Amino acid sequence: MRIPIFRHWLAAALVAVVGLLQLPSTARADWADASGFLSVSATPRAFDMATKQVFSYVTVTNNAPGAVTGPLRLVIPTSNFTVVGAGTTADGKPYVNLPNGLAQGASARVRVSFTQQRGALTFTTRPERYSPPTVTAGLPGTVPEGTPVTGTALVSGAQGPLSYLWTQTSGPAVVLTGDTTATLGFTAPTTGGTPTTLGFTLAVTDGVGKTTTATASVSVQPNDIVVDAGTDRQVYAGLTVSLHGTGSGPGTSDIFTWTQDSGTAVTLTNAGTANAEFVAPAVTVPTNLVLELTYTDGLTTGTDQVTIAVLPQPTQSSANAPLIVAGATQQQPLVLVAQPGAQVSGGTTETLTAVASGGDGHYTWEWKKPVHTGGAACNTTDGPDDGPQFQVTLPGTGTGQCEAANVTYKVGVIVTDGAGRQAEDVTDLWLNHAALPLTIQAPAAAVSEGPKPATVAATASGGTGPYTYAWVQTGPETSPGVLDPAYIVTLIDPTTTTPSFVPPPVNQDTTLTFRVTITDSTSPTPLSATRDMNVLVRNGFALTPTLPFSLQVPPAVSVIAGTPVKLGAVASGGTPGYTWSWGCTGGTAPTLSGQTTSTLTLTGNAASETLTCTVQATDSAGTPASKQGSVQVNVLATPGPLPLAVPPIPRIYVDEGTAGVTVTAAATGGTGTYSYSWAFVPSGGVNSLTLTGALTNAVRLDAPLVDAQSALNLQVTVTDGASSVTRDAWVVVNDITPPLEIALTGGPLTVTAGQTVHLGSGLTPRGGVGPYVYSWSQTAPATPAVDITDGTTGNPSIVAPTVTASTPFTFAMTVTDSVGHSQTVSETVTVNPAVPNLAVVARLQGMGSAGTELFFNPGQAGSITTSLTAPGTGPYTYKWTQTAGPSLGNLGTGATASFTVPDATSTVAVTVQVSVTDSGGKVASSSVDFNIHGFRPGKPCVVCGDLNKQIACNDMELVIADLTQCPDATPYCMNDIVQNASLDPAVAQYKRCVDEVECDSLWYQATSDEPLCLNFDPANGEDTLICHLCCWGDACNVDTVPPVETLYRP
After folding, report:
1. pLDDT band for position 172 (50/70/90)?
2. DSSP state for residue 956 in the 8-state scheme
3. Residue 560 above 80 pLDDT?
4. What is the 3-state composition of the chain as percent helix, strand, coil, each rounded to the nearest 5?
5. Confidence of residue 124 (pLDDT cuts 50, 70, 90)
6. Distance between CA atoms of residues 919 and 1002, nearest Å
7. What 3-state class would DSSP assign to 86?
8. Do 807 and 784 meet the contact criterion of CB atoms below 8 Å apart?
9. SUPFAM superfamilies given for it (predicted)?
């Protein structure tokens, strides 16, 4: 045995005494249970020589007014002796069983035998009346269908090993896993759209063989989550694109998350809201961006995707118009419009269509083989070349086929009319490796009233070809759904891409509306798209009128005999492709050349004669057969020079944007030395014009862009040094630019107050004459007024204003092109009120402290309070859930949860979560964690001295080391050592019973890391030293320094 410090000099003399002290003659039996109905008494201890055991008879008496049901146990807290034939409680204490219950006033006696191991023989016995454990079946209250569910058995106050059995009592049958363990698992069943409830029973059997049950139910909600990431659309590179998603489900949360699935990487802003934004990246070919929206309602999660096709930024100029070549005298130029560019899928066949107008109407077509840069594997299969249509079969994009990225095909087409005039255009096809959304292009058209047939046209792109078409007339209407009978037309070939009809007679310009539905060949479910188009029927207007055939001849001229003169005639109208015939009569026959051209060269051979020259012009149609005109030619002698003259300058017709138009003046007579000066007279809506070569006979100019056919007036002044002549010239400029319009893509936006949103990403101006000028304004409501940032661009932004209810705001965008044409469209943004955020923090109250650990002792009262760090919108509901540890019981539904800590046989962790829901459905949660320390009953300790009175233990007390049972409230043994060289004695010891708080603060916090205390030696040379050594165990503080294994640890 260990000899305490300071008593080595008494050891030899007191060995026999110590031996006697180890076997006291009586047991301490002073405990009764809390009800006071059971009492305990014990006989003096005896020693059984045969078995070498110490034993005592313990009697338990029932003082209750009635019988006490069992079973009853007698638990012996000591651990220094082996109790013969005893069982062991969950916390390691030996026990013996008493009879199963006691009648009123009855007693039961049991023999308790001990085998000594070490230390003094002191024990305390107490009866324990059986009480069933507290059992809670921990299951979530609500779950979505199809999700895994976990249940946990929460048990406190149980004795002995436990067994579990979970059973389902109601609802659709589910497959249970872990049904004989503390953790249950199953998958929530499908509900068929109707919420359902599952009922469960948990049975827990303890080591005594008694069973306690608990029930719980789980509400299974249909997975009715709906997610919409918005409509697929096209945008131009460089624009800020606003995304708008929606989500709904049975849960109470609304959590949105945007991510990019594919395409050129972009940076998403506000990606955690329903309305994210990004700037469309710069691209040289159309590029698809796929964005994914993930929506969570607090119970389950759903996703949806939207495809944004980013197109290269167009150049805003009249170069967007088709290439046009005009003849010198052709008022209606030859026009060729190729099919607009399209995105196509591999393995499909595309039929390209070109439309020609103007010229003489006799067209021949030439299609060019598609040119690309994708290598031989990306070649197309072409043909047949069928006039204005051309078929292109794209290569497949699978492995070993056309695997090149971003392949662009350029398909050229040339049209030639009967007069040899040519026009050409190009269609771009962009090959995509993924299916594109089905889109339709159906441009508006203008036609003249009958009887000449007119056509409507639509082209499809995306999806999977080939396509089927279905056309119907939708307007004008006399009432909703009823067509105006005066304007109903019959569509011919309404299942083709270009049906025709005869425009009805109109008294004023009237718009007919048609709708085309195009269905592709996507398998197994074809895609379908619909597009409306307008056809303006103009009153008394022909798009390509045939002008009356006319002939202009020069006025009478005078010429000096022997000098040649040119007589020029000009034909117009009719059907171009004219033939000519000249002849002269009267006087001496002149010398002629160029008789079969429009210009006759004549030389008079005799003076003082008058000749009449007749010209006959015939158009290519021969109807009417011909036109005749006569010119009087006066042949003069040469008495002197002819006067200065400038023949009339023929009128020139050109198309807007034509470069290098040349106007020529030819002077005759005078001195023969001429100087020229050209000037532009503002006319035709044009105020200024740049002239090149204005001091020569041939001036050049570039035809300006116009918004209607315009006549430009030029004046040339010719001087020969003696006189001058001024002559007018006219250049007629045709308007060929498509009308200004604004394409609408995408849908209205819904945002929350305070969010920034960009306008215009779904509005695309086209046609007209670029560049464009933008102007934005708010049209509704009048208040609150919203500031528009960058309101003179096509992509401005706003900050959604504060509103008290969902409010639509309408903004008008007016686009004006460079020739003054304007179009206005509106965009609507619905603003919802901002919902205050909700956040909660839960805090423990009434806990103990052991270092940084938060803990409670059994029986201690505690509470958890909540505070809202973000207020949300009241009123609030609270839900408390315990997810770990022995059950704390019903925690209520208020802002504070109160509880009494249950018994525990060892330190166990507890987790409690609170969920707060505000009136707007927002949910916030917080959790707390703490430990419950296992029950630690009082131990027999050496108690001597009085620390408060500074009375130290004497040497005899330290050597004898008599033991005193510590109460359960102060179960720990403490040795206090005070070393002070100036006192007598220099070292004082105090031994006492303490609670956990004092044990933790004086020993564990203040002394446990002090080596002089852990290895205390009075000869350490220290002048002053104070140590507190705390332990838990039978007689653990007999020695000055307790055994290491008994020292307190939290």
Report:
1. very high
2. H
3. no
4. 5, 45, 50
5. very low
6. 50
7. coil
8. no
9. Immunoglobulin
Q: For the domain 839-845+854-932, what is the CATH superfamily, name and number?
A: Immunoglobulins (2.60.40.10)
Of residues 690 and 740, which shows the higher confidence score?
690
Using DSSP bridges, classify how beta strands 1024-1031 and 972-980 pair: parallel, antiparallel or unpaired. Answer: antiparallel
Provide CB contacts within 8 A for 525, sequence distance 6+. Answer: none
Which is higher by pLDDT, 118 or 818?
818
Instruction: Give the global pTM.
Output: 0.39
Average pLDDT over residues 25-51: 52
In this structure, what are the phi and psi dihedrals at residue 776, rounded to the nearest 5 degrees?
A: -110, 145
- Residue 364 is given by DSSP the state E
What residues does 854 pair with on adjacent strands? Answer: 849
- Contact predicate 277/308, CB 8 Å: no
Q: How do the domains of the chain map onto residue ranges?
A: 3-127, 134-221, 226-311, 335-431, 439-538, 550-636, 652-734, 741-832, 839-845+854-932
pLDDT at 1041: 92
Structure-block tokens of residue 751: 């945002």
pLDDT-derived band at 602 (thresholds 50, 70, 90) equals confident
Cis (ω within 30 of 0) for the bond into 370?
no
pLDDT at 330 over 50: no
CA distances from 400 to 358, 795, 1012 (A): 46, 43, 82
* C-alpha torsion angle, residues 421, 426, 427, 433 (rounded to 10): 150
Q: What percent of the chain has pLDDT over 70?
A: 79
CA atoms of 812 and 991, how far apart (whole Å): 90
988/467: higher pLDDT: 988
Instruction: List beta partners, residue 90.
Output: none
Fold classified for 134-221: Immunoglobulin-like (2.60.40)
456 strand-pairing partners: none
pLDDT at 516 over 80: yes
The residue count of the chain comes to 1050
In angstroms, the Cα distances linking 534 to 107, 707, 814 are 107, 21, 21
Q: Which CATH number fits domain 550-636: 2.60.120.10, 1.10.760.10, 2.60.120.200, 2.60.40.10?
A: 2.60.40.10
